[in-house]
Amino acid sequence: GENVEQHPSTLSVQEGDSAVIKCTYSDSASNYFPWYKQELGKRPQLIIDIRSNVGEKKDQRIAVTLNKTAKHFSLHITETQPEDSAVYFCAAVSNTGFQKLVFGTGTRLLVSP
Amino acid sequence: DAGVIQSPRHEVTEMGQEVTLRCKPISGHDYLFWYRQTMMRGLELLIYFNNNVPIDDSGMPEDRFSAKMPNASFSTLKIQPSEPRDSAVYFCASSFGTSGKTEQFFGPGTRLTVL
Predict the structure, then answer these.
(1) Cross-sheet strand order for the sheet of B65-71
(2) Is residue B50 within 8 angstroms of chain A, CB to CB?
(3) How close, in Å, is residue B11 to chain A by CA atoms?
(4) I need a labelling partner for A22 at 20 to 30 A (CA). Which of A102, B24, B57, B80 fits?
(5) Percent of chain A predicted with pLDDT > 70
(6) CA-based nearest residue in chain B for residue A105
(7) Is residue B74 within 8 angstroms of chain A, CB to CB?
(8) Residue of higher predicted confidence among B41 and B37
């Protein structure tokens, strides 16, 4: 089955810096890669996703890149703000998995003012 | 739409008691997922349903856990008997997968504490 690894487990940055979180996956059949943000005590919420037919997707200060050959994908947050502080989860869905998300272990991002 | 609804939001029980968690998915969604979140194990998929039919229950930890979806608007996750190691936040999520959309919408979660 699919296995998703995520690094780093914690990341501290100063406000205004960029933050990068990286994930690798094992199943070459995976074709959908969402990123969820979970604020303290709240539910995970989708912030951006990418499908395997594109290499990069941007949404304002957030971007995701995908390298299918290397089987890794990354989340990039530019001009970080204190409200970006949260736990970020990457995930992968195999086209044989009927919507089954396999999550990474999460990255706790702390943005200091 | 009110989003995914879960009840109760908090549950404190004693070891050995039966616990039932409830979920109402977003109307029209055809997939429903149960997750468990702990510090040690992260976010784990327990079971998911498509059109009320269980598709994959390989994440259910043991026979003490069971889940049902009697209709499109209601699902339960039952733990009997409960143990302290079951303490976690349990999330329900739903999606409209048949449309090709894969975003899962999570409920607010149920924080379970087993003493």
Answers:
(1) B5-7, B19-24, B74-79, B65-71
(2) yes
(3) 15
(4) B57
(5) 96
(6) B42
(7) no
(8) B37
Helix (H) or strand (E) holding A18: none
pLDDT at B102 over 80: no
Distance from CA of B63 to the nearest CA of A (A): 22
Q: Which residues of B54-67 are buried (b: 16+ CB within 10 A; e: fewer)?
A: ebbeebbeeeebeb
Most confident of A10-24, A25-39, B97-111: A10-24
| Long-range contacts of residues B49-52, Cβ cutoff 8 Å, at least 24 apart | B49/B75, B50/A98, B50/A99, B50/B97
Cα separation, A16 vs A79, whole angstroms: 4
Nearest-CA neighbor of A67 among A18, A23, A103, A2?
A: A23
Would you call B25 an interface residue with chain A, using a CB distance cutoff of 8 Å? no
Q: What is the model's pLDDT at position A52?
A: 80
Q: In this predicted model, which residue has the larger pLDDT, B34 or A2?
A: B34
Inter-chain contact A43–B91, Cβ cutoff 8 Å? yes
Decide if A101 and B106 are in contact by the 8 Å CB cutoff. no
By C-alpha distance, the chain B residue nearest A40 is B108
* Residues A82-111: tens digit of each pLDDT: 999 999 999 998 766 567 888 999 999 999
Query: What are the two backbone dihedrals, phi and then psi, of residue B26, each rounded to the nearest 5 degrees?
Result: -65, 135
Which residues of chain B are within 8 Å of residue A34 when distances are taken between CB atoms? 102-103
Q: How big is chain A by its Cα radius of gyration, in Å?
A: 13
